[in-house]
Design a protein that fits this description.
Layout: H1 7-10, H2 15-21, E1 23-26, E2 29-32, H3 36-47, H4 51-59, H5 62-72, E3 81-85, H6 91-100, E4 105-110, H7 113-120, E5 127-131, E6 144-150, H8 159-169, E7 170-181, H9 187-209, H10 214-224, H11 228-238, E8 241-248, E9 253-259
Parallel strand pairs: 3-4, 3-6, 4-5, 6-7
Antiparallel strand pairs: 1-2, 7-9, 8-9
Helix pairs in contact: 5-6, 9-10
Length: 260
């Protein structure tokens, strides 16, 4: 059951290939370049009402620890302005808000209205929601002290453009953290993870959300995504420095932290 992409196939997620072929993948399925954003939006429209519950159920709650560790690496201080790109229902922004205090700003930026509405129902103190496209952040240059993106960059059609926008809105010296799923290091653990991802996860997703398809595309997109070293090279080419890779839970999740 080895469904992990080769390096050559993973590189097809990058902008050069997307622009040359005018196609972009969501999971293992290729769509017209212009259609991926609509496909991703439909995906989250389908699962938004059960999104938080499913995250907790499928990860046994460990995703909260991953998010806390990622935010810790931003070294947030009271009064800082923090942006969480593809922030969904606001979990990471809420952690950031607890550190910025009442003098700071913790802002969720997400394209999906239903996800934002779910986040607003959680009444998280100090968190502001803005709807918008991660490839075109509606803020001036150097607006934020730190930027986070958790489990969202896989869904962006033009990955490098998304990171370039994050770099643009970061203040000089500001920190970025990217929390994303990746390929487990241990082969046996990876086998178990694959069985769970492609047999158990879609089954539970179908029962809980009515969309087996959504929880099939989810693990597929992980296996097509660049590995940590490959992503680090992309960040360095954009201009980020002091890049640190921190693997979590045998490499299921990885934090990339970097500085502008």
């Amino acid at each position: 059951m080895n469904r992990w992409y080769t390096k050559e196939k993973r590189l097809e997620q990058l902008e050069d290939h997307v622009s040359a072929t005018r196609t972009a993948r969501f999971g293992f399925t290729a769509y017209a370049e212009s259609d991926k954003i609509h496909r991703v939006n439909h995906h989250f429209n389908t699962i938004a009402s059960r999104y938080d519950l499913m995250n907790t159920l499928l990860s046994a709650g460990i995703h909260y620890a991953w998010k806390r560790k990622a935010v810790e690496m931003l070294m947030i201080r009271p009064g800082d302005k923090i942006l969480d790109v593809c922030g969904g229902t606001g979990d990471m922004a809420a952690i950031s808000a607890s550190r910025t205090g009442h003098t700071g700003l913790s802002l969720v930026y997400d394209m999906n209205r239903k996800m934002i509405e779910q986040g607003k129902q959680k009444f998280m103190k100090g968190v502001t929601f803005v709807q918008g496209d991660a490839e075109c952040l509606s803020f001036p240059d150097e607006s934020f002290d730190a930027v986070s993106i958790g489990f969202g960059i896989r869904n962006v059609t033009h990955l490098e453009t998304g990171f370039k926008e994050i770099f643009r809105v970061l203040k000089r010296g500001g920190k970025m953290c990217c929390l994303e799923f990746s390929k487990p290091d241990n082969p046996f653990f990876r086998f178990l993870y694959d069985v769970y991802s492609f047999r158990i996860m879609p089954f539970i997703g179908g029962i809980m959300t009515g969309s087996k398809e959504a929880y099939t595309a989810f693990p597929e997109s992980i296996r097509a995504f660049p590995l940590p070293d490959e992503l680090s090279l992309i960040l360095r080419e954009i201009g980020f420095k002091d890049i640190i890779i921190r693997k979590l839970t045998n490499g299921i999740a990885v934090i990339h932290s970097a500085q502008k």
